[in-house]
Amino acid sequence: MAYGNETVVYFSEQVVVLCSCALSFLGSSLIILTYIIWADLRTTPRRLLVFLSVSDWLSAVSYAYGVWRVFRTDSLDCIAQGAVSTFANTSSFFWTVAIAVYLYVFIVRSNQRAADSLVWCFHIVSWGVPLAITVAAVCLYKIGYDASEVSVGWCWVRIHAPDRILWMLLTGKIWEFLAYLTLPVLYILIKRHIHIAHAALSEYRPILATRPPSQSFSSMADMKLTLIPIIFIVLRIWSTVRFILLLVDSPARQHPVLVTLHGIGNTSQGAANCIMFVLLTRPLRTRLCAALFCCSKCRADSQDAAQRLLPGQDASTPREEDRSNRVGTDR
């Protein structure tokens, strides 16, 4: 299973985690593409989801490279991969909390202007802080080969760094712990407010039910953003467990099942968000199905047209025959 301080990453674990990376890559890409294609879905909460998806996209790509390579030394590509994944992973923490803060101000405080004004602060914090931490870690030679102690083949904090626990906290774990404390509180407050508001407006539900369906669906999609903290905690807990086991020097952190769950959890947020906010959102699902149906119909029509042509007959022949028929008719 492991020799020395190194955790062996088995081929089966590589395959599973690479599949998870691929799904997260596709899911994050689909979230970004749907936001770009359909302008009426460009609400502020969904724009924040897109920024989160950019971080998840970078995480999926960098983690996939690390899992595929399974680094053994502090090579240049190991350091580059570790820097990208550190930045993207930390940024994902910040954007997840930013979404919860936005929803709290928008829904509980009922102040859309204040919520919208926070977006620039979110950008500065969610991109700036991870970038500053990553640059500092790289410049101080803290990023490199970590023997998969708290990773699954990819590079993170150097295993030989004397203060590596401190840098593990700075480059991810401390923000992860803060997210564990902040997100449930904000999530509970949001859900409590929604429950109270629904109860107070119950007598107006027949009137609200007559709103255009698109408004109801958009509101439903935005409300689903409150589930992001739950997805975050469920997926990230395995990484936290391995870190705690590292602190107590327990060999259980090298168990293949725990390593696999860690790999899946760290690389699956993009896929989970796509399932929740694209595939399970009716307006988006309907549009995607319509787009796929149109593409398949166009391909079928082109194939039928090609099959109708006689052997040795090209597409210009019908047009020539039709032109000669029109000339005969004129005569």
UniProtKB/TrEMBL annotation:
Question: Which GO biological process annotations does it have?
Answer: adenylate cyclase-activating G protein-coupled receptor signaling pathway; cell surface receptor signaling pathway
What is this entry's stated membrane topology?
Multi-pass membrane protein
Q: What is this protein called?
A: G-protein coupled receptor 157
- Transmembrane domains' residue ranges: 15-36, 48-68, 88-107, 119-145, 165-190, 225-245, 257-280
Q: Care to name a GO molecular-function term for this sequence?
A: G protein-coupled receptor activity
| G-protein coupled receptors family 2 profile domain sequence ranges | 13-170
**SUPFAM superfamilies noted in UniProt:** Family A G protein-coupled receptor-like
Among its keywords, does the record have Disulfide bond?
no
Cite the entry's keywords alphabetically. Membrane, Receptor, Transmembrane, Transmembrane helix
Chain intervals with Basic and acidic residues compositional bias: 317-331
Q: Which GO terms describe its cellular component?
A: plasma membrane
Quote the Pfam families the UniProt record gives.
7tm_2 (PF00002)
List where in the cell it is found.
Membrane
Q: Where is this region: Disordered?
A: 309-331
